[in-house]
Amino acid sequence: MKELNIYQLVPQHFSNESHPRGRLEENLLTLFSQLISNVNINHINSTVCSDSSKLIVAEIDRKYTNRGTVFGEIIGTATLIIMSTPHGPVGYVHDVVVDEQHRGNGIGRKLMLAIIDIARSNNLTELNLTTNSQKRPTAEALYVGLGFKQKPTGFYVLKLTQ
Ligand SMILES: CC(C)(COP(=O)(O)OP(=O)(O)OC[C@H]1O[C@@H](n2cnc3c(N)ncnc32)[C@H](O)[C@@H]1OP(=O)(O)O)[C@@H](O)C(=O)NCCC(=O)NCCS
Q: Model's pTM, two decimal places?
């Protein structure tokens, strides 16, 4: 397996000359479009800039040159949202996706383990997520394999946009 770097994207990555802005944005749009139908770079930027969200990425093909590090290709991502609630700080996991060329190699699991580590280090009391287990059996295998259990309570959503 090639070197895999898993880290949180921060605003500085978008202004780093080794990670040219256009290329990083194009890379993220291509990846997210495999999960989200109307992917929007402004939403990705807002997530990266938000104090309560942590957008984690998995990157391959990083190069180390005399002139510094040249970032490679982002092939997977997962976002953790941290919320303060009356019953303690909780986390929500959103938008987990691995590039289709790289699925089945343990990258989704590594991203989720990174999210769980961050959740523990932020003293979160629980991590929540939803998935359509009929439509997404791999995602369900990933979450159940990590110990996630389905809650008996339904998860209600009010869509505020089309
Ligand atoms: C779900 C997804 C992120 C998993 O990423 P991945 O890198 O392929 O997953 P991994 O290789 O880490 O495998 C995760 C688990 O799924 C299992 N798995 C892998 N391929 C599978 C398949 N085709 N069918 C069923 N289970 C499968 C693995 O055995 C592994 O189980 P384990 O952790 O108990 O060993 C990836 O398939 C994906 O991006 N799917 C499309 C987007 C999506 O559905 N996102 C989730 C939204 S809720």
A: 0.94
